[in-house]
Amino acid sequence: MDRRNHTLIAYFSMEIAVDSELPTYSGGLGVLAGDTLRAAADQGVPVVGVTLVHRKGYFHQSIDGNGNQTEAPEEWSPEKKLEPLAPVVTLELERRTVHLRAWRYRIRGVSGAEIPVLFLDTDLAQNAPEDRALTDQLYGGDHHYRLRQEALLGMGGLAILRALGHWELRSYHMNEGHSALLGLALLEERQGDDDEGEKTSATDCELVRRHCIFTTHTPVPAGHDQFPLDQVRSVLGDARTEKLIGLGCCNEGTLNMTSLALFFARYVNGVAMRHGEVARGMFPHYPIRSITNGVHSPTWTSDSFQELFDREIPDWRFDSLNLRYAMQISVDRIREAHEAAKALLLDEVNRRTNAGFKPDVLTIGFARRATPYKRADLLFHDIERLRRIAREVGPLQVVYAGKAHPNDGAGKDMIRRVFDAARSLEGAVPTVYLPDYDVALGRILCAGVDVWLNTPQKPQEASGTSGMKAALNGVPSLSILDGWWIEGCVEGVTGWSIGESAEVESDAASEANSLYEKLEKEIMPLYYEHPERFGEVMRSAIALNGSFFSARRMLLQYLHNAYQL
Fold this sequence. Notes:
Elements: E1 9-13, H1 28-43, E2 47-52, E3 60-63, E4 69-72, E5 83-84, E6 89-93, E7 96-108, E8 114-121, H2 129-132, H3 143-163, E9 171-175, H4 181-191, H5 202-209, E10 212-215, E11 226-228, H6 229-236, H7 238-247, E12 250-251, E13 254-256, H8 257-264, E14 267-270, H9 273-282, E15 288-290, H10 297-300, H11 303-312, H12 331-353, E16 362-367, H13 383-392, E17 396-401, H14 409-424, E18 431-434, H15 439-448, E19 451-454, H16 466-472, E20 477-480, H17 485-488, E21 495-498, H18 508-529, H19 531-548, H20 551-561
Parallel strand pairs: 1-2, 1-9, 2-8, 9-10, 10-14, 14-15, 16-17, 16-19, 17-18, 19-20, 20-21
Antiparallel strand pairs: 3-4, 5-7, 6-7, 7-8, 11-13, 12-13
Helix pairs in contact: 1-20, 3-4, 3-6, 4-5, 6-7, 11-12, 12-15, 12-19, 15-16, 16-19, 18-19
């Protein structure tokens, strides 16, 4: 049956955060995907999202008193939240037929429009046990497991779309390289069943390329998925492997998924201006543009600020650029809304940790994936200096959160170092680490701290979006000049930079010194001695950064620059 569906854009992402109760994401990539689709629903853009169901989620994080992280499955039942869809499609993997179905979640926008998100699932009785588990774990298992998952996402995802009648699609957006085998599936679809690898023509590739968009998020070479060709041959078969070799996407005996996505993409972009420059250096043969990430304003604005904006800027939910008019809101009202958001955070912190955090103390927040380049411990580079600042300039309290991937030993060490520092600073700078960081906790944390801290090693921060969420709630950033903050930092107006240049290579000692200087001589005196002026910085963070770094603006750039509508 050729039942046509008039959706025009398919958005593929290995993880999509659609609901705080659904563990279908691990962090920034999935949250960005969810925010993109929420913005599409707000604007009535005809998009369908495609991802995997991840029946065991990413993982539940537990942290003991010494900072040791342990993981447990985050099992959930899609039947409770998702709508089952009837079509079942098949894909040949490892010379076995794998059956695949989809569940649907509907994202409803402020205008009433709905965006469907398809969650692919192999937990079907007709599949072999090892195939039934392929849609269980997000970023779990080994390279073999990951390759099969990526085949399901890209190739199985296209098959599901066709089975549901999505034949009029104009653009296929690959959000990171996990779905790059979509390009191969589109090529096979165009060539038909009788094609052989050596017959692939430049014309066929170009006709596929006209419809594909690729967004890369990884400025570190090691972060791009690569699979040995013998593994590719085992999973995909000889014919497909020879075709991939013929396309030139296999170098030194490996299939590079980023190279494959680049090959098939008409439009390629990084996720911040600086990241675009870095990506062009990594892949000099491709014209890589930049579209800086944004966040979905209604989702990440705290209840107290939503109430304030509803009164003062009634159209802000429909057009986030209206947050520019926050400059007309009195500083007192900004501070009142922030005090309410801060009270919610401190209640949560004290309930979880019994740390006794106080509302009148400058509260710093840091919540990122726990991995070495994000340098969660830079704040503790000089424990004694931080102790002296807290003693002589004013009290400080610090909230941390973030998961380390189960296989990232260095990331787990980072969490332990934060715990070690917290013990050293006990009685001087109260510091807590909240486990199981997710969308719900992130919303409270980004809104409730007084200053958002971000300390990545340059130039490894592709974009970052947590500081954008903070800005919506009047929380200024203190951040390394990397990723989005190069564009968002107006020194002393929207926040403060750590270091003076984005171009200078990262140096931990120099950057830690800059961090302490900004805290001691600018931020803390402003907070404790000139609260009205600190409130002006809060207001500017909303008006300048909250208004611009939105998913709505980001989506409009994709519509104008990338999608063919």
